[in-house]
Amino acid sequence: MKITRIEPVLVGAPTPGCGLLSNRNYFYLLVHTDEGITGLGEATLESHDDSILGALRDLEDLIVGQDPTRIGYLMQVLIRQRFWKGGVVKASAISGVELACWDILGKSLGKPVWQLLGGAVRDKIRVYANGWSGGATDPAVIRDKTQEAQAYGYAAFKFSLAIPSWPLHDTETVRRVAKAAETVRDAVGPDAAICFDGHGRYDSNLAIQIGRALEEYDLMFFEEPVQPEDEEGMLRVARSVNIPVAAGERLTRPQEFRRLIEKRAISIAQPDLAHCHGFNEGLKVAHLAEAFDAFVAPHCPMSPVITAISLHLDAIAPNFLIQERLFLNDWRNEVITEPLQVKEGFIELPKKPGWGIELDEELIRKHPRIVAGTPRLFRPDGAVCDW
């Protein structure tokens, strides 16, 4: 079997809410073969669509003509034979190809991907909702949105407040985050899992203040309290706050995860299979975390395609914790022909060959590419903040 061409498919997917969440294009890759089997992957990298298209053009001659079932070999070629190993743009383009190749392999053998790797170690996948608040910062709106997400079957929830903050000491931000956590906890009860995503917005001093204010609300984890390259800052937060620390969505190689895991700076690794060079590299991260008694919880705030793909890793990783899923209550949930359903906090394992999903081509034609956008935050003095 040989790869004959790579087909990018961009689907415009604006995000409802108050404008504090990204508008994005879902970036799909269809890898076609000379045996008529087509594989589906995702390489969504918010606001960087043309960069991914350019990276694919740069790599295309290394892909076309290759055997898609020699996945490990093809990944070595793509990562190592252009001298520059990458960064997240190249890694995302490679991820989309790698994921599509796994889909081809599973389809060619008539098996779901999780069955090709030793079989499932669990019967269903625990999930949490992200994006359910629509970016709301008002506690009354957060309360209403929480109840809406519960009605869709979710029993675990992650929230974030996209507000600019001052470094070192910002009591207003600490109070607002704590109030939001109190609101969510009151709405979901004492036993539901809740998580807070710092989005790398804080320095370690402010992150520690926020983390300590959140301790009384019994969080499952504190995600990206600082920027992921600030390994010592991440460790400082982990040692100072009685909440497990999670990170990894911006990391693309196992070596980057190793530095955080072996320092015990994180308890939960969050590889994003659309960014970390694909499924096999994400699985390496899961095994690495397992060796240090840490957990894996794949990052996944994009489309149902990458969610469905992530379920296969969740199925086989013994140290899997919980799967992120973007809260979708509109047409975006139906970009695949059999939409994923959350029931009492879980999603069933895919049973069909490959990833077990197919794009709804008629629906996606109705949603052409849009101008994607990420919100921008500024402090009152005009200084730039991380979003």
Descriptive key words:
single chain; alpha/beta; 3-stranded antiparallel β-sheet; 387 residues; 37% helix; globular
Description:
This protein is α/β, with parallel strands linked by helices. The chain contains twelve helices and 14 strands. The strands form four sheets. It has a six-stranded parallel β-sheet with strand order 5-6-7-8-9-10, with helices on one face. Strands 1-2-3 form a three-stranded antiparallel β-sheet. Helix 1 packs across helix 3, helix 5 runs parallel beside helix 6 and helix 7 runs parallel beside helix 8. The longest helix has 22 residues. The N and C termini lie far apart (44 Å).
Can you describe this structure in just a few lines?
This protein has helices spanning 49-63, 71-80, 88-109, 113-116, 139-151, 171-188, 204-214, 231-240, 254-262, 279-291, 304-316, 361-365; strands at residues 3-13, 24-33, 38-42, 124-130, 156-159, 193-197, 221-223, 245-247, 268-269, 295-296, 323-326, 346-348, 377-378, 384-385. By secondary structure, it is of the alpha/beta class. It is globular.
